[in-house]
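Consider this today:
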Amino acid sequence: MTLPVIIIIIISLALIIAGTILRSWSSGNEASLAKKRKRRLNRWRIILKKHENGDGSVPTGILRLLLNPENLAAFADASFESVENLSSAFGILYKNERYICSLFGGASNDLKCFFAYTLSTFQITDKEHNSFYKKTMLSYLSKDSVFLRQNALLAIYSFGTESYVVDAFHIIGQKHLYHNERLISDGLLTFTGDKISLSRSLINVFDTFDKHIQIAIINFLRYTGIHDYDKRFIEIAKDSNADVDIRCASIRLFSKKTGPKTTRNLIYIIEDSYDSDVWEPACVAASAIGNIDDHDENKDAINCLLKSIHSKWWYVRINSAKSLSKLRITKSQIKALELQNDAYAMEELCYALDEVQYALDNV
């Protein structure tokens, strides 16, 4: 056996032994961590049980345990194990609201983030017991951490008060902080109060918010199926001077409520912008109109799409083709399109029709 082979065998055996030792250590470490978690959970069970019929007064030393993220998680886990534990936890959170907020004043952003998230799970909707929590969460919105802002917003939504949400959005706007509209709109869906009342409060001051929050509000209305303000957003969608992203969000909102009026508005938008430099509204409208199967209006929609399929913009052409394939375009109309010698338009339509046929064949 040559020396290189012996060296390779020795190295291989060493690696196998090291791996075995590491797995053994990891297994032992996991078991140790599990025991610690169980001890923390049991401690909070005992604390909550002890103060089950009390007024929420507990020694500050117990409250300071919450500064440890593992203890904070154990407190929440123990609280939701039973109605009695949850009642005891609410008593502690209510009675010590001011102290708990001050406790996290000097904490790291990561710990504040976890505190805000944990608070959101309790959904403290009683204004008498969430005023300090509200002020604390609003102050977190000024921090330069998207994770902290998002979890602070989740806590604010959980309080179920419309004015708190409006205040939060104004702070984000005043600080010129970017917060993704998808995060905002998804967060609004978790609002624990009346979503219709929330929509009314947001629309009343809609123009005071920045673009990203406005788009989030429009998306929130679409997700919740609230169409009370469609007239306003139809006008925005048709306004060539309005922000293009807000126009597109408005189209997605009002097009969800199908009918002849919606079809006519979509046709107007497509014809107005399918070949212009601001083509995005036509692209969104061309996609939306294919989902409205209104026999009385299909003819006008098809005629409109037969024009927009010649757009100089690829995305407008492809969406026009897809919608034409859904609206039962006739063979004579396909033949007429073919005679126009627009190879790109014909190719897109044939591809869209093939996709529809494939889907039907595989139902």
Q: What stands out?
A: The two ends are 65 Å apart (CA to CA). The chain has a mean pLDDT of 89. The chain has 20 helices and no strands. The first helix runs from residue 3 to 50.
